[in-house]
Amino acid sequence: MLQLNVKNETSRLRAVVLGTAENNGPTPTIEEAYDPKSLEHIKAGTYPVEENMVKEIEAFNAVFQKYDVKVFRPQIIENYNQIFARDIGFVIDDIFIKANILPDRERELDAIQYVIDQIDPKKVVRPPEEVHIEGGDVMPWNDYIFIGTYKGSDYKDYITARTNWQGVDYIKNLFPNKIVKSFDLVKSKIEPRDNALHLDCCFQPVGANKGIIYKSGFREEADYMFLVNLFGKENLFHIEREEMYHMNSNVFSIAPNVVVSEKNFTRLNNWLREQGFTVEEIPYAEIAKQEGLLRCSTLPLIRD
Fold it and tell me: pLDDT by residue (tens digit) across 168-222?
């Protein structure tokens, strides 16, 4: 049996589900695009090809092997995108929460059922239907659980609005001993530079007390200020609009002092090194075209 344990974003990683780009299927049509960034690349003819995405994910896998992390991969579904494992489930403490995702992605959960079968069934939960919640919006941070949401009255009109207030309430009820803090995110169906698809598109902790943040990703300045006050402004790396578009906040921590990052994030990677982090740089720019990056591709199961 897998003894799940995830209390935060940065403790030493022991076991993870890593998505796969194999048998990824044809380039989606304009109508099939889930987010404005994919749409932009579909229209431009620059949507990533499978061969390049497979190389990128395998470079990520090689880093996990280097650090002796147990890696589970989804079973392959033919002609299907299974890159973003974070969307389909997440772990808080020792509970595996299945996400209620867009209905046509349900098969992605079936593809990791063999992993879920290794977890105590009492520790696996599925929220009721009205609860929308995705792993990219959920960040356990010790005593806190940070959750990205969208509070606009037009929630249902936004395919980019992935976690609703019922999702926030569900987590509050499931973890009464935690401080659950929700953040209202900026959404756009048409401009990827103004769309925080998930919380990890505009914020992510690194190390013990630092973080990467994009101020304009928050609809309310008070939400941004909450994080500034909690982490300290001097501990936060502020990314700019174009860096947010390239997903600079969507790195992934293997340990408090080890961060996996995209090799083109020069300004961020230099800052991380100045702060004493080991930065494992890998190519991930093709996968990034689908508005997802390193954190989105992973579903951590066990951290120290």
Answer: 999 999 999 999 999 999 877 666 677 777 899 999 999 999 999 999 999 999 9
Phi, psi of 133 (to 5 degrees): -155, 135
Backbone region of residue 79 per phi and psi (left: phi > 0; alpha: psi in -120 to 50; beta: other values): left
Q: How far apart are CA 97 and CA 127, in angstroms?
A: 8
Pure H helices in the chain: 36-44, 50-66, 106-110, 113-116, 165-174, 221-231, 241-245, 266-274
Cα 290 to Cα 285: distance, rounded to the nearest angstrom: 10
For strand 89-92 and strand 95-98, is the pairing parallel, antiparallel, or unpaired? antiparallel
- The answer to whether 15 and 2 have CB atoms below 8 angstroms apart is yes
With CA atoms as reference, report the closest residue to 206 among 8, 5, 3.
8
Predicted model pTM: 0.93
Q: How does pLDDT run across 234-248, given as a tens digit for each residue?
A: 999 999 999 998 999
